[in-house]
Amino acid sequence: MSIYEKTKASELSRSIDCMLGQTVPPSEIVIVKDGGLPPALDKLLADYALKHPNVMKIVGYPSNQGLWYALRMGLGECSNELVARMDSDDYSCPDRIEQELAVMRNDPSIDCVGTNVIEFEGSLDNQVSLVDLPSNHEDILRFGKRRCPFRHPTLLYKKSVVLQSGGYQEMPLFEDYDLYMRMVSAGAKFQNIAEPLVFVGVDRSFFQRRGDPSYLKKMVYFRTTCLKRRDINAFEYTTSIIPHAIVCLLPNRLRAFAYKTFLRAEVK
């Protein structure tokens, strides 16, 4: 888990507590401080470290370096082969890790497993949409040519496979997708659990950010990198860029409508 100066203490507490409360609890929780933190956040982390000295592992560095750098450092600090991702503003259901471990136990060839997610605004009760992702390996590979087939905070993966694929690298806004594409090239095997086991926080700025010209520029850069690496071909490059560009150029209200109508499902 990576945190920085704008991380909200209440959300961080919720995130840590839900991981400590897993039916299969973690043997360690690695938190990376991406730059200096406000005193209140430092105190919160110190309190958790005092209560759970054998579980909490808190590392960091003086100045903010970005998510990819924090995740790269954090992965290096993880002691176990199986590593679960988690974000500081999200919530995992109590049996998330248990279910993900069961997938890997039933099929040891699986290198990375994720889940569907429910997006919420503000509180967990205000559920706005369901992100329904492909489940089996073949469907994930097909889907991944156009869109990222995982939500990063849901993942449980084999550390060795991630490192063999190059680990986290600098790719602004697309660190997770970039890692996935490199894992595909390395021959990794994937699965998603067809159940929303993680709640991901979103707000109105989520859709605004996807209309920012810098977002479009970074998306094109990422896709071009994938093309140069031969992760995708020219046809896949074109058919993935054009829809993204159209959505980016829409007015914010229409962009939000497009996401919720075509890229999300209704929460039942």
Secondary-structure map:
Elements: E1 2-3, H1 9-20, E2 29-34, H2 39-51, E3 56-61, H3 67-77, E4 82-84, E5 91-92, H4 96-106, E6 112-120, E7 127-131, H5 137-144, E8 156-158, H6 159-164, H7 175-185, E9 190-201, H8 204-209, H9 213-228, H10 234-249, H11 252-262
Parallel strand pairs: 1-2, 2-3, 6-9
Antiparallel strand pairs: 4-8, 5-9, 6-7, 6-8
Helix pairs in contact: 9-10
Question: How would you explain this protein's 3D organization?
Answer:
- The protein folds into 2 domains: 2-202, Spore Coat Polysaccharide Biosynthesis Protein SpsA, Chain A (Alpha-Beta Complex); 203-268, no CATH class.
- The chain is 45% helix and 18% strand.
- The protein has helices spanning 9-20, 39-51, 67-77, 96-106, 137-144, 159-164, 175-185, 204-209, 213-228, 234-249, 252-262; strands at 2-3, 29-34, 56-61, 82-84, 91-92, 112-120, 127-131, 156-158, 190-201.
- The strands form 2 sheets. Strands 4, 5, 6, 7, 8 and 9 form a 6-stranded mixed beta sheet that branches. The chain has a 3-stranded parallel beta sheet with strand order 1-2-3, with helices on both faces.
- Helix 9 packs antiparallel against helix 10.
- The chain is globular and about 55 Å long.
- The model has no long low-confidence stretch (mean pLDDT 93).
- GO terms for molecular function: glycosyltransferase activity.
- It holds the Pfam family Glycos_transf_2.
